[in-house]
Amino acid sequence: ATSIYRAGKWDVRFAVENNPTRNSGKPKTEFGSNAVLSGSKEEKELTTNAETRRIAADQEEAERRSADVSRRKALADKHQSFLLKLVKSGKTYLGETSGRQGAIPFKISYSSSNADGSMFTGRIEMFRTGSITKLDGEVLKGKMIFKETAYIVRKDWGIGDVYELEVNDEHSLAGTRYVNSRPRGPVKLRIE
Q: How many helices (H) and strands (E) in the chain?
């Protein structure tokens, strides 16, 4: 039906193409234009199918999340193991940070650690300034965090800087140097 309001009166016209009985006798489907009666067999089937699909989707999502958590944990464990081995090696490594003067190369060595390597001490020597400082640090959750705690040779370099490094790849660590709890610049450490 088509309704038009003109000059204060409604003009209603019926057309054959608007036949309300044209779909009678056709099966009702989930995607069809016909309505499904409340409480009917079709409604129960649709509700059951929708619930089954929702449960299956929820299970797939839970499995995907579980797999992601497992992968991240495995990677963190691998990085933790790599860092502990690095600290316990006693080797000296070359690195670079940046400051007001630009790139600042350094070398770092680890002198002692607790039995599992999670807590360590060492020293860091800044080539540009000639400053050598003692460092104390820990390996925690796949990260290496250490702080310059005392002067060994005092030059133009302050103590108290905190370095936070993560495994970048099998040949390097990367992270940030913090001065007074503020990011001061990137840090890279080569593992060879």
A: 1, 10
Task: Read off the pLDDT of residues 39-54 as tens digits, 9 standing for 90 and up.
Answer: 778 788 888 888 888 8
Question: In the beta sheet, which residues pair with residue 99?
Answer: 102
The conformation of residue 180, written as its DSSP 8-state character, comes to T
Question: Cα angle at 92 between 87 and 94, to 5 degrees?
Answer: 110
pTM score, two decimals? 0.63
Let me know: does 126 contact 157? Beta carbons within 8 Å.
yes
CA dist 4 → 8, 10, 14, 19, 20 (Å): 10, 6, 12, 20, 21
In contact, 16 and 2? CB cutoff 8 Å: no
pLDDT at 154 over 80: no
Which amino acid, one-letter code, is at 87?
V
Burial 105-125 (b: 16+ CB within 10 A, else e): ebebebeebeeebeebbbbbb
Give the C-alpha separation, 131 to 136, whole Å. Answer: 16
Q: In the prediction, which pLDDT does 32 show? A: 54
The C-alpha torsion from 90 through 92 and 94 to 97, rounded to 10°, is 60
3-state SS track over 3-49: EEEECCEEEEECCHHHCCCCCCCCCCCCCCCCCCCCCCHHHHHHHHH
What's 64's DSSP letter? Answer: H
User: What one-character DSSP code corresponds to residue 94?
Assistant: E
